[in-house]
From TrEMBL, chain A:
Gene3D superfamilies: Winged helix-like DNA-binding domain superfamily/Winged helix DNA-binding domain. Residues 26-125 form the HTH marR-type domain. SMART domains: HTH_MARR. One of its GO terms (biological process) is response to stress. GO terms for molecular function: DNA binding; DNA-binding transcription factor activity. The keyword DNA-binding applies. The keyword DNA-binding applies. Keywords: DNA-binding. It comes from the Bacteria. InterPro entries: HTH_MarR-typ (IPR000835), MarR/SlyA-like (IPR039422), WH-like_DNA-bd_sf (IPR036388), WH_DNA-bd_sf (IPR036390). This is Winged helix DNA-binding protein.
UniProtKB/TrEMBL annotation, chain B:
Keywords: Phosphoprotein. This is Response regulator. GO terms for biological process: phosphorelay signal transduction system. Residues 4-123 form the Response regulatory domain. The keyword Phosphoprotein applies. InterPro entries: Bact_response_regulator (IPR050595), CheY-like_superfamily (IPR011006), Sig_transdc_resp-reg_receiver (IPR001789). It comes from the Bacteria.
Amino acid sequence: MTSANQDKASLAAAVLLERLIRDTYTARHSSEIQPLQWSILRYLARSPEDQRQLRRIAPFLNLTPSPVARAITTLAQRGLVTQRVNNTDSRIKTISLTQLGLEALSQDPIVDVATRIDALPESERQDFIRSVRTLALGTSYYPKPVD
Amino acid sequence: MATQILLVEDDPAVRHLIVQFLQRDGADVHEAETLEQARTILSDRNDINLAILDFWLGNDNAVGLMDDLRADLAGLPVLIISGGNAATDLETTQAIADISGAVAFLQKPFRKKDLLSAVADALG
């Protein structure tokens, strides 16, 4: 395989990853729950109570508070989360999943992607997961092959 | 016998606070500021029950150590703590920790009760 074909293959892989995720959200008709809202629901599902606050969620998602606050308001309006004023500091609200929010998470579109990853042959699954981790870490552990 | 905990945290103030939390809960804590120090502790001791690792350590990260622990000490639970870093958000950090075998992830800063709860869960 020539260098040109390798670069083309890498670009094609990037396109496929982008389409895989984008199509997953589109296919699940998740215009009702947007990707940021899904991220918030996931955060709430696995975080202890003291960390379920806007001031913790926004930096976790690397976002400013405003879009996260709007997303939480929308989730609350849809009955997926509740917001309770903190007993010791009324400026702080603790956000919790409702039963409806828990049920919604069972339909999280990202689960479809995870299921497809799970279905890969084991060696491919491990290689894929390691590769995604490497990409996320932003380091290149493997040198490009020399032609 | 007291629970033996390896703690890897490069911020001295945070490390001191966590050590206090854990010691008052009855654990023996073996502190490391770097991954190299952590590896030395692990090679000197065979009684570590739990590893608490700060994910981002200066220019390094805990992934290599976590991979080695999974290979050599598969039964040792690893709890990751992190405040993120300039280049990588916490959501990504958590996902990387999950891939690398962490049993739990705590976002800094965290309360003593959340740390102790995570430790108790990790130790089963």
